[in-house]
Structures are given as C-alpha cells and as structure tokens.
Specification:
By secondary structure, this protein is α/β, with parallel strands linked by helices. It has 2 domains: 164 residues, no CATH class; 159 residues, no CATH class. It has 6 helices and 19 strands. The longest helix has 39 residues. It is elongated, with a radius of gyration of 26 Å.
C-alpha cells in the first residue's frame, strides 16, 4: 500500500514539473489571488504570473506572460508581453511585441514591436512602433502606428491618431475617421480571406490521426492487454451504464478543472484535471473504436468477441472512426457519443476491479 501511494505521489510530482516546464520554459513564476511587482522592483529575465488581480508597477527585463481577471501594467517590460484577462490596462513601456486577449482593453503605452489585441472593446493610445492588429466589437484608436493598422469591428479613428502605413478595416460602413486623424497611406476595405480546402493536407491529417489512435491503443495493449479487452467488452455488457457515467464525467471533470483554475490557488490541480480530461478523451476514442471494429469483425468472420484480435479490431474501428469524423454536420455528435461510451467503460472497469480487489 505504501509503495502504491509513493508511486502515485511521485507520478503527481512529475506531472506538476512537466506542466510547469511546458507552460514556462524558464524564469520567475508567481501564482496567487493577488500578484504584484512593486514600483522600483526589478525582475531580471522572464516572468510568468497568474492571479485574480495582477499589477506590474516595477520593471521586468525579459518577457512577461500574465493571466487573471484583472491585469494592470504601469511598469516597463523589456521583452514581449502576452496577457489574457477580463480587464487589461497597459500603460508602461513594452520593449517587444504586445499580445492581448480579454474583455475590455485600454492601451496607452510605448510599444516598440507589433501590437495584437482582441476583446469586446479596445481603446488604444500611445505609440506603436510596428503594425497594430485589433479585433473587437468597438475600437477607438488614437495612437501613433508606425506600420499598418488592421482593424475589425466598429472602428473610430480619433483626432490625433496617426497611421504611417495603410489602414485596413472590416466590415464595410463601420469605420469613422475624425478630422485631425492622419492616415499617410491608403484606407482599404479588407474582407477576411476564405480558407482554401487543401485535400493533401486533409488526407495527411486524417492518416496521422488514424496512426495516432492505433499507437495509443498499442501502448494500452502492451501495458495492460487483458484490462483493455475487458474494458471494451464492458461497453457491450452495460451500454446504458457506460453512457450515463460518461455523461457525468463529461460535465463534471472539465467544469471542476475550470473552477479550480479560476480560483487561482487551485491552478496546478485544475490543469491536471483538464490534462486528465484530454487523456481520457484519447483513451475513450481508442476503446470505442476497438469496440466498433470488434463488432464489424464479428459480423464478417462470425466469431465471438473474445476470438477476435484486439489490435485488428482497433485498426478497423479507428479507420471507421476517422471516416465518420469527416462528416461535417454530425462529427461533433459522433465525437461526443464516442467519448461518453469510452469514458463510461473506463469507469465501469475501475469499479469492477476495485470490487474484485475488495477496495
């Protein structure tokens, strides 16, 4: 028992370290309900932070990544800045690119690189050395833009604004340029480009997806082949039970992960829950695909389920899975059904093993 607990703890620590390194390659990190870099404080290198409230009054010499409900930057950042928050205010100096995503954004900053922002509303002043790409329901631009300005939404170019390059806007009839605003080059209506269908890329993507499902199934087979087969069999034995358990997990697991991340304190556990959800999604695809392939082989060969080859069933079923996922309008419903049955079968198997072991 102690050995099992120790292994579980070690595995959890490895996951946390992996997640930390995946999210942030290096530099300082800070999490909490309230995160603040005080005026006069200098953080050398990169800085990653997340909190309900994030305030940067000091100086960061490297890149900054900040996430939270409210993020306010009045200090200076030497590198690139990436922010995602409900409310964002940037008033300091940014030495690189500025990338923002949020509900309401206010910019009055000296940005030495490019600006990219998407939100419900954007007010942009200050000086942008490079290009500015803004997308929002309502945009007010009074900044000096050294390059081109790309604006999508209801756009108002305020008096005092100066755009050195072209002004691209969309949609039509939602652009206002006040007297006193300067656009040195052309004002161009820029409709979004329609994506061209790439048949070769589409086929390669689907073949890779098929191979990925098979490799995951092969790993499960080599790790615990007997349990793999019993879990697949569980879908046929209790389909309604698997469906109900799958529906419960589909609702509860991601919801719990998001709630934990919002509380900030529970960010590591919330990320682990969401990562677990993704892993279970992949495993459920493999299990349900194997079940479908098994049923097809049973019809063709007239053999019983236990007589069919597990990996051959996976190969056939995952091929059918990939084909059905190509159907545009029912693909999402198909994915949902596959997930519900697969994760329900995993939970049924877990309860069965626990009962047999007396746990």
């Amino acid at each position: 028992m102690k050995k099992k607990k120790a292994s579980t703890s070690f595995f959890a620590i490895i996951i946390l370290l992996f997640l930390s390194s995946a999210v942030w390659g290096g530099g300082a990190m800070n999490f909490g309900p309230s995160v603040e870099v005080l005026s006069g404080e200098i953080i050398k290198g990169d800085y990653f932070c997340a909190g309900a409230s994030v305030v940067i009054d000091g100086t960061i010499t490297g890149d900054l990544k900040a996430y939270g409900a409210s993020v306010v930057i009045t200090g200076d950042v030497g590198g690139d800045v990436e922010i995602a928050a409900a409310s964002i205010v940037v008033m300091g100096t940014v030495g690189g690119d500025l990338d923002l995503s949020g509900g309401a954004i206010l910019i009055d900053s000296n940005v030495k690189g490019d600006l990219s922002a998407s939100a419900g509303s954007i007010k942009c002043a200050g000086n942008i050395a490079g290009d500015a790409t803004l997308g929002a329901g309502k945009i007010e631009l009074s900044a000096t833009v050294g390059g081109d300005a790309h604006c999508g939404g209801e756009v108002n170019i305020i008096s005092g604004a100066e755009i050195m390059g072209n002004l691209y806007y969309y949609p039509e009839d939602r652009l206002t340029v006040e007297e006193g605003a300067l656009v040195h080059s052309d004002t161009i209506l820029e409709a979004p480009e329609e994506e061209k269908f790439n048949i070769v890329g589409f086929i390669v993507q689907k073949v890779w997806f098929w191979a990925a499902l098979f490799l995951i199934g092969l790993a499960l087979f080599l790790y615990k082949g007997k349990t793999y087969r019993q879990t697949v069999a569980g879908i046929a034995e209790a389909p309604l039970k698997a469906l109900l358990f799958g529906l419960l997990f589909f609702i509860v697991l991601p919801l719990a992960g998001v709630i934990l991340i919002i509380t900030v304190v529970g960010i590591p556990l919330g990320i682990i829950l969401l990562l677990t959800f993704i892993i279970l999604l992949l495993v459920s695809m493999v299990l349900t695909s194997t079940f479908v392939g098994e049923r097809i082989l049973m019809l063709i060969t007239k053999k019983k389920a236990e007589e069919t080859r597990l990996l051959l069933s996976l190969l056939v079923g995952s091929f059918v899975f990939v084909l059905l996922s190509c159907i545009p309008f029912i693909a999402w419903l198909f994915y949902l059904t596959v997930f519900l049955f697969g994760i329900g079968a995993v939970w049924n198997m877990y309860l069965k093993e626990r009962k047999e072991s007396g746990g």
